[in-house]
Design a protein that fits this description.
heterodimer, A: 107 residues, mainly beta, 4-stranded antiparallel β-sheet, 11 strands, 0% helix, B: 123 residues, globular
C-alpha cells in the first residue's frame, strides 16, 4: 500500500494567516492526489483533485501544488470557517489511502 | 443533487456481522462507483472497498477476507457486510461516491459522502 504522511499533525494560526500543509507519498504518485476538509462531526468534503484543481464551489483561497511524492495545500488567508482537519488521499493505485490528517486550530 | 444516507444498527456484538446500507437519491445510480470507508481514532480514514453499478466490487486487501459489498439497482442502494467483527472495527462508517470529472479523466475522487454512522462493537 502507498503510505501518505502529512505534516504537521496540527497547527495553530490566526485569522488572515497563510497556512501550508504538506503531504508526502511513499512512492511516486504523479499528480494523483486529492485534498479533503473535514469539519467536526461532518463527512470529509472534496477541496482539490489532481493535486491542483479546485473542486467546483470551493473558495479560491484554497490551492494545491506538487507532483511525484511531495504535495502542499495552501490556505492563502485563514478564515474562521476554515477550522477543520485536512486530509490528503492518493488516487494513483488501489487501495486508496489517506494521510493521517492535519488539524487547523485558531490561536 | 445526489445525496447518500447510511442506515443500519449502531451496535454489533463481537464475532457477529456488521451490516450497513447506503441509499442514493437525487441522481443517477449508474455509471458510478460506490464506496464504503470508515474512520476511527486509531486508524484515521480507511477505504474499505467499492462497487460498480454492474456489481463488480474491489476491496482493500487488509479487509478483503471479511468484507462483502453488494448493490441493489432497483432501490438505488448498496450494502456493506463485515463479518467476525472485533472492537477494532468500531468506527464511523461512511458511504461515498467514487467519481471523476468526466469519463475520459484518469483522476478519481470521493466527491459526495453520506453523513456517516457510528458503529460500536461491544457485548
Amino acid at each position: 500500500d502507498i503510505q501518505m504522511t502529512q505534516s504537521p499533525s496540527s497547527l495553530s494560526a490566526s485569522v488572515g494567516d497563510r497556512v501550508t500543509i504538506t503531504c508526502r507519498a511513499s512512492q511516486n504518485i504523479n499528480n494523483y492526489l486529492n485534498w479533503y476538509q473535514q469539519k467536526p462531526g461532518k463527512a470529509p468534503n472534496l477541496l482539490i483533485y489532481a493535486a491542483s484543481i479546485l473542486q467546483s464551489g470551493v473558495p479560491s483561497g484554497f490551492s494545491g501544488s506538487g507532483s511525484g511524492t511531495e504535495f502542499t495545500l495552501t490556505i492563502s488567508s485563514l478564515q474562521p470557517e476554515d477550522l477543520a482537519t485536512y486530509y490528503c488521499q492518493q488516487s494513483y493505485t488501489s487501495p486508496w489511502t489517506f494521510g493521517q490528517g492535519t488539524k487547523v486550530e485558531f490561536k | 443533487q445526489v445525496q447518500l444516507q447510511e442506515s443500519g444498527p449502531g451496535l454489533v456484538r463481537p464475532s457477529e456481522t456488521l451490516s450497513l446500507t447506503c441509499t442514493v437519491s437525487g441522481g443517477s445510480f449508474s455509471t458510478n462507483y460506490w464506496s464504503w470507508m470508515r474512520q476511527s481514532p486509531g486508524k484515521g480514514l480507511e477505504w474499505i472497498g467499492h462497487i460498480f453499478h454492474s456489481g463488480s466490487a474491489t476491496y482493500s486487501p487488509s479487509l478483503k477476507s471479511r468484507v462483502t459489498i453488494s448493490v441493489d439497482t432497483t432501490n438505488n442502494q448498496f450494502s456493506l457486510r463485515l463479518n467476525s467483527v472485533t472492537a477494532a472495527d468500531t468506527a464511523v462508517y461512511f458511504c461515498a461516491r467514487w467519481s471523476s470529472v468526466n469519463r475520459g479523466s484518469a483522476h478519481w475522487y470521493f466527491d459526495i459522502w453520506g453523513r456517516g454512522i457510528l458503529v460500536t462493537v461491544s457485548s
